[in-house]
Sequence to fold (292 residues):
Amino acid sequence: MTEIRSVAVLGAGTMGRGIAHVAALAGYRTTLFDPHRPALEDARATIHRRLDKGVELGKVAAADARAAAERIALHGALAEAVAGADLVIEAAPESMAIKVDTFREVARQAPADALFATNTSALSITEMAAASGRPQRFAGMHFFNPVHVMRLLELVRGLETSPETLETLRGVGERMGKEVVVVNEAPGFVTSRINALIGNEAFRMLQEGVASAEDIDKALKLGLNHPMGPFELVDLVGLDVRLSILEFLHRSLGEAYRPNTLLVQHVRAGRLGRKTVRGVYAYDREGKRLPP
Ligand code: NAD
Fold:
């Protein structure tokens, strides 16, 4: 079984910075790549803030947090980020074209025996695996937001993913403190498929005037014991990310997944959630929700 000592994370957005955080805290030498320089600086600040918070809450020892921060190197050049990686985890935008291009390039620059994983929420692992030229050494590692808090890791088996690759990645996930479930490739896996349906239905109810966004959220939290309401969750995930998942599920699984038009309008208006300080709800620059 491949021994993983170093992890390269591609994309320093919402997910990439979280994956880099848990990789470094698990003791892996970690590189974080993003073509957009400000995303890297912002990611560094987020990771340091979260590590400090972990120390303050007594969840992380101060020395471990310091060591984790020192284990992370930021790169604006892909070749440098993946050159010494045993495992490459891609967290670029949810577009098959971007992911396929990225893995073609990574296959040229990373060590021949490195394992590749994608954090896609719904797209085909097998299609990316084929583009990478190493389909046996390729799988989905579907983390959840915020990565340092959420306990689940969905490991997704593509058509040709080897049992050894899955076992190695299970070990990596467990070392990062995650509970692992293994899912065969199917559109949206388990979690994104169910979640997309609930989120879409919530928008439909809002559009129909069944209840306010606040009351739909409250009903699901207090009546169904969901830890977050569907609108609170989509503001965290990103409405654009959710829309692209629904479009893909609609193409592959049919009408039940047709994106609601109110959701589409929010995305067209640039109301993408917390990251643009306005989604279903409005937020201030510190991320605090503003009253309706
Ligand atoms: P994001 O938009 O926050 O971040 C994407 C980052 O990728 C940006 O910083 C961007 O500059 C960078 N990028 C652009 N082109 C790139 C390239 N060619 N190579 C590497 N990086 C590139 O997106 P996100 O929410 O972090 O989502 C990333 C992936 O994780 C998507 O596939 C998404 O479906 C998946 N995902 C998201 C969530 C979530 O809650 N947001 C949860 C699970 C999985």
